[in-house]
Amino acid sequence: MICVLGDVMLDKYSFGKIERISPEAPVPVISVLEEKYALGGAANVANNLISLKEDVYLLGLNNNGSNLGKKVISLCEKSGIKTFFVNDNRPTTLKHRFIARDYNQQVLRADYEDKTPLSYEYSKKLVDKILELNPKILIISDYGKGVITQKLMENLKRGYTGKILVDPKPKNVDLYKDVYLLKPNLNEASNILGEKLKNEDSKLEEAVKELMSKYHSNVLITRGSRGSTLSTLNGNIYHIPAEKREVYDVSGAGDTFLATIAYALNHDYSLLDAVELATRASSIVVGKVGTATVTLDELFNKDE
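The structure corresponding to this sequence follows.
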């Protein structure tokens, strides 16, 4: 079993046509033709693992009594994701994206969220459930929406002994010392280190070594079209090139990447092999529109 802990979100997509500019302001008018909902944030990580045929438990915050919260639960049940949600009555986080159908391009995103830090009472319930489940792999999907707090991480580290993989928000990175893997993207790594990192191998080697030394973790910086750079605790550094694909939408690509690493580690891949497999997975998912997932057939079809 793999557990995913973090900020659970609902993604809403409105697809339509853009054929004119508004007379009220110099902005395009989209005529909405279709709407759909999908799991987002930590829930999208869990959904990616389900697509890879993993047994998954999703833990986080969700307003189970609201219409949006019920939609999250319904989508999780439909996908086969087991859930443990706490509810402090804040609205379920919603990201609403507007897509121009003729171009398959996102033109606007509206976010509805409350980022108040989760109380100790509720964070303890989440940690207690993780310790009860005792998964081999725990993914922390931190979008900075309030679920991951200092007390939560302190309690978790005291009792959990499996591998923790983290997609960190820079403001929370000090909470993640001694985890198994930190996976910031290039912009996040720049914010953590307080400098604008050039997307060059030599510069990224310095960056991953500095982060590894500071946080005592394996460190992986994802670099978009330049792939990723990995520094392992045994002192090795690897540059993993990206696979070239036509890109339609990068929404959720980081979720797919981290989920695939967890899948591979759960099947006893080395960390380097896990990152290489995740690179293939993310190259597939950016060729799809929306927060999509990758199947095992896609992932292992070398002639795709």
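The radius of gyration is 19 Å.
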